[in-house]
Write a structure and sequence with these properties.
Layout lengths: L1 E2 L1 H8 L3 H9 L6 E3 L2 E5 H10 L6 H6 L10 H8 L1 E5 L4 H11 L8 H14 L3 E3 L2 E2 L15 E11 L9 E8 L3 H14 L3 H8 L4 H12 L16
Parallel strand pairs: 4-7, 6-8
Antiparallel strand pairs: 1-3, 2-3, 5-6, 7-8
Helix pairs in contact: 1-2, 3-8, 5-10, 6-7, 9-10
Length: 236
């Protein structure tokens, strides 16, 4: 979905004047379509997270199209797993190590996944600040996985990811999704969880799996579950 300036102002709870100022300063990612600014919801979520802007629970709900049940962040993290002492000396070698440990169906081409992750990093860093990155592919549906998953990998040594705050990355949440909708759902949930001081502190301390799962479960409990309701067909 391509958002308008008004959509972004409501999503981030700022004035449209503020949105235009960000655009004028070249900060906010946007596209010009027929002379009008349009925005990708995923890119706005990533940008807002990297700049530590608050995103309302209502805005997160709007990111969903609830015609199918989606996993919670704890469920996706349980499916993807938490891994420690991941090696690497630069972005490429770190992502290669991550791809080797991520829990994926046998039919997924891991080399293709690596190249897709690297291509996304070339567009812009997925480092969101405070030593955390969220690597993911630009087009989720190319991976042909059955269900969304999130893998949390702690690095053996911090690596420069080119994050906005200049801090090297030590923790990576890798998102693997079968659809753009599932990707947006998990990205919004992760953004919400990382605003929780306890969750972030445990991540930065590289705490044990049980503590991390419990903290993320507690944080996610404050978000309403997406409702399953009939979706009316769009008018032709």
């Amino acid at each position: 979905m391509k958002l308008t300036v008004r959509d972004v102002s409501e999503m981030l709870d700022v004035s449209e004047k503020t949105v235009y100022r960000w655009l004028s300063d070249g900060k906010l990612p946007a596209y010009r379509m027929s002379g009008q600014y349009r925005f990708s919801r995923a890119e706005v979520l990533e940008w807002a997270t990297a700049n530590k802007l608050n995103i309302s629970v209502g805005a997160l709900q709007e990111a969903e199209n609830p015609n199918q049940p989606l996993p919670t962040l704890p469920e996706a993290l349980q499916a993807g797993g938490i891994f420690y002492r991941i090696g690497g000396t630069d972005v490429e070698s770190v992502l290669r190590s991550v791809v080797e440990v991520v829990r994926l169906p046998d039919e997924v081409d891991r080399e293709f996944l690596l190249q897709a992750l690297l291509a996304r990093e070339q567009l812009a860093s997925t480092g969101i600040g405070d030593g955390i990155a969220v690597p993911h592919v630009r087009n989720p549906i190319v991976l042909h996985v059955d269900k969304p998953l999130v893998s949390l990998c702690f690095l053996e040594r911090p690596i420069d990811f080119g994050a906005l705050d200049g801090q090297p990355v030590q923790a990576l949440f890798t998102l693997i999704s079968p659809s753009a909708r599932a990707h947006l759902h998990l990205l919004s949930r992760l953004s919400f969880a990382l605003r929780d001081a306890e969750v972030k502190a445990l991540v930065l301390r590289q705490s044990v799996r049980e503590e991390l799962f419990e903290s993320i479960r507690r944080s996610s409990a404050h978000l309403p579950l997406p409702e399953l309701r009939e979706v009316q067909p769009a008018n032709e």
